[in-house]
Amino acid sequence: MSEHAPASERRPSKVAIVGAGSVGATLAYATLMRGAARQVALYDINREKVRAEALDIAHGIQFMPMGEIEGSDDIEVCRGADVVVVTAGAKQQPGQSRLDLAENTVGLVRAIVPELLTVAPDAIVLMVTNPVDVATAAALKVAGLPAQRVFGSGTVLDTSRLRYLLARETGLAVQNLHAYVVGEHGDSEITLWSSAMVGVVPLLDWSTTHAPLLDAEARDRIAGEVVGAAYQIIAGKGATNYAVALAGASIIEAVLRSENRVMSVSSELDDYVGISDVCLSVPTVVGREGIGEKLVPPMTPAEVAGLRASADRIREVLRRLGL
């Protein structure tokens, strides 16, 4: 028997997105525009809103790769999804940190994740709602799934912001700048300068021959811009949605296309540089089964200490919420 089913028997890939707010609706659009999945289900308790968002996207299907979208306030719309993405949660207000949203978001996660798994029991669960590290820990606890199938978008967006700023600073293509942001998706996140690369050259070596480009002062400024990016955008327009949706769509692609791509997603750590029992972002292989190996890049003692401090910050919130 062939290991591949005949084309007529193959089921199209399906992604269910929970929440038709600015992030959820834009993620549905990005997923279809990139051809990441053939079917997208958009679920929200606001019936008119979710139907309108889905209809607006559906009217542009002609200009996308083949696909379809359905929006509903009935959780049945998520049935059979290969990937379930949770974007619903409390909206971050100007001046609020992501951790300020924890209690409301955890309550939603506890309510919605078990319901989703009744209609999509084989799905990979991707958390995008903030605070994503806390939400991922809550989802993992209530889902009862293997840890590899529940993870968060983590610092994938922060890493993209970092590489954009490095490209702007150096004038080089963003695809040739390799650097990661790890830890909390939030104020305590860490930029791993010691393992960053400009093409095939270690960034710290490159900066010494191109000073003042990417010198210590420039690196501190860039790291600060990455941390403050969301606050700036939220103050200006009320929410971030475009870049986070593209980040989410790229994670979905890595899963559905079995890409085994290294991404800084958030997942439960087990003795990662001495850190355990907390969800944080580290470079991780993402593929069809969810998350795989967590890679340990070279880190300075200061970077390791920063990552551990980030873990302590998240762990304190988890304790406060009974997680």
From TrEMBL:
It comes from the Bacteria. Keywords: Allosteric enzyme, Cytoplasm, NAD, Oxidoreductase, Phosphoprotein. One of its GO terms (molecular function) is L-lactate dehydrogenase (NAD+) activity. Residues 155-317 form the Lactate/malate dehydrogenase C-terminal domain. Allosterically activated by fructose 1,6-bisphosphate (FBP). The keyword Phosphoprotein applies. Pfam families: Ldh_1_C, Ldh_1_N. InterPro entries: L-lactate/malate_DH (IPR001557), L-lactate_DH (IPR011304), L-lactate_DH_AS (IPR018177), Lactate/malate_DH_C (IPR022383), Lactate/malate_DH_N (IPR001236), Lactate_DH/Glyco_Ohase_4_C (IPR015955), NAD(P)-bd_dom_sf (IPR036291). Belongs to the LDH/MDH superfamily. LDH family. Homotetramer. This is L-lactate dehydrogenase. It comes from Georgenia halotolerans.
